[in-house]
Amino acid sequence: MAISKNDLLWMYENMYKIRYYEDKMAEAYTEGKNPVFNIGAGPVPGEMHLATGQEPAAVGICVHLKKEDTVTSPHRPHHHAIAKGVDLNKMTAEIFGKETGLGKGKGGHMHLFDPDVKFSCGGIVGAGIPHALGAALAAKKKGKDWVAVSFIGEGAANQGAFHESLNMAALWNLPLIVVIENNQYGISVPKTASTSVASNDVRAAAYGIKGYYVKDNDPISMYEVSKEAVERARRGEGPSIIEIETYRYLGHFQGDPELYRDKNEVSLLRDKDPIVRLRNLLISEQNIAENDLDIIENKAKQEVDAAYQFARSSNYPNPEDALNDLYVS
């Protein structure tokens, strides 16, 4: 499949932006938490789940989406939000708990919502799938060609919401795409110890729908299968499952001692980094000059740095105003 240079450059820019964003967040999150780790301390309190290494899953499908399409995300949401076009300033302010955030600082990292681009994040395992199902049903009822994408981890494929939602999506022939990011671990449990099938795309057969599998965290393959799944959904040909073999370079959460996996595992994964692979492809096959890619990278860095400055310089919400945004009937 021929991929346009514009799409490849969009994917590279957003993968780089996501990686730089997560690296900055990892740094900011440690402030005030050392020498003894304290989850509630520092400018970014609470649990923090970063998506470093999982960038292809987000950009490979979001490159095919439009503003009217819905995306739901789990507790590891930053890469999905960035790829869907969530306002970076407001998103970062929300994570820092500031009043300029998407939810005025009341939702935080695991509850990011941006109705302007139809993005939401539930935080609970598998919770976003029924919401995406509802969006897909609404699109069909309205006669629109919109699609709904729900990102989940491989552990969520064992939740009831996964099976119930896919059964209804298949029964009603809805434009729902469930993207399973198989990063090999459900918290600290390896997939081989929790799931009876080698890959969850085979479960599509149980519902009579399409299933796709993307090997080795490959952004090009993710682009190709996502294009087919999105086009099928827009044509009214029903739901799909996509499972991508991906890898998180960091722990389940920041501060995770990661006693369940060999530290050499991460080093081996970084040796085949998808951002480096895509950069090399752009240079060798698209004849993109390294200097042009440097410009793209610097642009992404500036955008992220500006968002962090915006968040840090914003005010915290007044606790006395905590109930002001509630609607009372």
From TrEMBL:
Its cofactor is thiamine diphosphate. It comes from the Bacteria. Residues 46-320 form the Dehydrogenase E1 component domain. CDD domains: TPP_E1_PDC_ADC_BCADC. Keywords: Oxidoreductase, Pyruvate, Thiamine pyrophosphate. GO terms for biological process: pyruvate decarboxylation to acetyl-CoA. It holds the Pfam family E1_dh. GO terms for molecular function: pyruvate dehydrogenase (acetyl-transferring) activity. Transmembrane segments: none annotated. This is Pyruvate dehydrogenase (Acetyl-transferring) E1 component subunit alpha.
